Amino acid sequence: AQSVTQLDSHVSVSEGTPVLLRCNYSSSYSPSLFWYVQHPNKGLQLLLKYTSAATLVKGINGFEAEFKKSETSFHLTKPSAHMSDAAEYFCVVISIKAAGNKLTFGGGTRVLVKP
Amino acid sequence: EAQVTQNPRYLITVTGKKLTVTCSQNMNHEYMSWYRQDPGLGLRQIYYSMNVEVTDKGDVPEGYKVSRKEKRNFPLILESPSPNQTSLYFCASSTGRLAGGHEQYFGPGTRLTVT
């Protein structure tokens, strides 16, 4: 079984300040983890992914995330928020299993960027 | 242009009237999947297909059917829609097993309202 919890449903930041989006997961097997972003009225776009290589993962648009197995976390950060970062962000987990391709999305974190 | 297309983008229908939402990808991807997105619940997987004629249930398959007769197409069928199937639906495709870290490419979404 697997699950994902995004600890904040909404995050509000000022432009130019850091962004932190928190994600905790549970998985019976070694997980692959993803962060996707959804801008208003758009489909989802991959920001970054972890697949058992480096624990610090860099993605597009200045985002990065760190996989911490001991804390079962995969938090997403960006040093300086931009107005274009206003969107909804989803943490996603999938377990490496012998068969199947089920994946689980977190409930999403909506980011508001204030000028 | 590499893309996933869905039709229709918007649909309003009545309870019990069968409908099909089409999904097509032009990237020769083996893996395709359907999700529904509801506020606060993130995306939940309905069905997925790992190749032609191979489909499997996701987390919320009740009330839905799928077929995969061709690699590029993966239609979602609602035989007897009900109001609780009012949602935003996304189709996605991927080159391979998601556990291997393969990125999913999402369609633009279909907003379905069942009255």
Question: Can you offer a commentary on this structure?
Answer:
The complex is a heterodimer of chains A (115) and B (115). Chain A has 115 residues and is mostly beta strands. Chain A has strands at 2-6, 10-14, 19-21, 23-27, 31-38, 44-50, 56-58, 64-68, 73-78, 87-95, 103-105, 109-114. In chain A, the strands form three sheets. In chain A, strands 2, 5, 6, 10, 11 and 12 form a six-stranded mixed beta sheet that branches. In chain B, the strands form two sheets. In chain B, strands 2, 4, 5, 6, 9, 10 and 11 form a seven-stranded mixed beta sheet that branches. By secondary structure, chain B is mainly beta. Chain B is globular. Chain B contains no helices and eleven strands. The mean pLDDT of chain B is 92.
Element layout with pairings:
The complex is a heterodimer of chains A (115) and B (115).
Chain A: E1 2-6, E2 10-14, E3 19-21, E4 23-27, E5 31-38, E6 44-50, E7 56-58, E8 64-68, E9 73-78, E10 87-95, E11 103-105, E12 109-114
Parallel strand pairs in A: 2-12
Antiparallel strand pairs in A: 1-4, 3-9, 5-6, 5-10, 7-8, 8-9, 10-11, 10-12
Chain B: E1 4-7, E2 10-13, E3 19-25, E4 31-38, E5 42-51, E6 54-57, E7 65-66, E8 76-78, E9 87-94, E10 104-106, E11 110-114
Parallel strand pairs in B: 2-11
Antiparallel strand pairs in B: 1-3, 3-8, 4-5, 4-9, 5-6, 7-8, 9-10, 9-11
